[in-house]
Amino acid sequence: MRLSLNFKSGKPVYLQVVDQVKAAAASGVVQPGDALPSIRPLAEELRVNRNTVAKAYAELESQGVIETVAGKGCFVRANHSPFRKEVRVKLLTEAIDEAVVQAHHLQVDKAEFLRLADERFGVFHQKRTRAANSGRL
Amino acid sequence: MTADSPAIEVDHLVRRYGHTDAVQGLSLRVAPGRCYGFFGRNGAGKTTTIKCLLNLLRPTSGSVKVFGMDPAKHEVAVKSRLAYVPDQVAFYPWMTVRQAIDYAASFRAHWNRDTERALIDRFGLNLAQKASHLSKGQRTQLALITAICPEPELLVLDEPTSGLDPIVRREFIQTVIGAYQEGAPGQRTVFVSTHLISEFEGLIDEFTIIDQGRDVLTLGADAARERYQKVYARFAGETPRLDLGGARVLRQQPRELEVLVNGNATEIVARLRAGSPEVIETEALTLEEIFVTSLAPERIAS
């Protein structure tokens, strides 16, 4: 898993870490049971405050993406979100709404939007399958 | 002197030299566990402020408190809990690296020998070398070792990386992140004064920009990058006339427009969208650009 931060994105740094770890888990780059780098080396490598990495990991844990094993470190969990289904759907709806707004302004219509969503699901599925077959990375 | 008193509290600090006010009414507050940037141009009053924190200078008026205590009244209590790396590091020239470290350790109740060994290795310092023969970079590394090994609750850095080569600078910052921040998060506060802002970008939680002895801007780093953004729009035809609510235009070409927004990015983007741009992009300012735009708005390049 390679993380790269962009201070020009305007997005809080800890959230960039959160989203990139989630993306890595969704695409199979990291798999359930894999250890995440511990806080100190990751903070040194990214040259960010340790608190930032600690905050990102706490957030990932509260979202059920990773779990902390005392004395051993942080590990990717085999899904699952601690939230109830309706909360999960609501969170996803918010993200979809943003994409729909973007689509409107970029003149991408509904049919094309849905085709694209389908394609992206395929891409992530393929990545996961490939990662699983190649015995991860 | 409770557990949650701020690590540093500066309240309307004034410090005068003769007829010159080096610091004129500065206020700031550093919560324990934060990495706090203190940004200013040369002569803005950074070092004077830091000297007041260390009781090397007395305030003309106003107050400074460190761990909730007046450093003039509780000098030993304050200094035993902090370490300071100045911009010009000096050691007794006749001492070797080993002797200089032991000399520094002799003033401290606590000293982490493991950290000491790890850092000497990391920096590749020769313990038998005379301090007078060290390069500027090595002297700074030695000062950092003597600052970190006592594991102080507060690390005060005054222009620590100016004049150092990029490799030493990079190592310096990694050492602060790694070796220093290793301890209990609430007891590892960094207060760093610098004008080399971009190097500390990832480390800074919160900052104050000081100019002519006054605090100009105090913000959290993430909040600052969210607030100060550049918005770029390109149009198919002539740039339409749009009311941009006072956003400062950085660049205007026949079909392109770039503006600087301060806290109202969403609104400005909506107004620009009304002109049906082909492309619209936003980009946060870095802390260094925010510093420049706060002090010399006309200098910010697009």
Folded structure, characterized:
The complex is a heterodimer of chains A (137) and B (302). Chain A is mainly α. Helices cover 58% and strands 6% of the residues of chain A. Chain A folds into two domains: 13-76, Arc Repressor Mutant, subunit A (Orthogonal Bundle), CATH 1.10.10.10; 85-133. Chain A has five helices and two strands. In chain A, helix 1 packs across helix 3 (50-62). Helix content of chain B is 28%, strand content 28%. In chain B, the strands form three sheets. Chain B has a six-stranded mixed β-sheet with strand order 5-6-7-3-8-9, with helices on both faces. Chain B starts with 7 loop residues before the first strand and ends in a 7-residue tail after the last helix. In chain B, 39% of the residues are buried. The model of chain B has no long low-confidence stretch (mean pLDDT 91). Chain A binds chain B through residues 5, 7-14, 40-41, 43-44, 46-52, 54, 105, and chain B through 33-35, 170, 173-174, 177-178, 181-182, 185, 201-205, 221-222, 225-226, 229, 265, 273, 282-287.
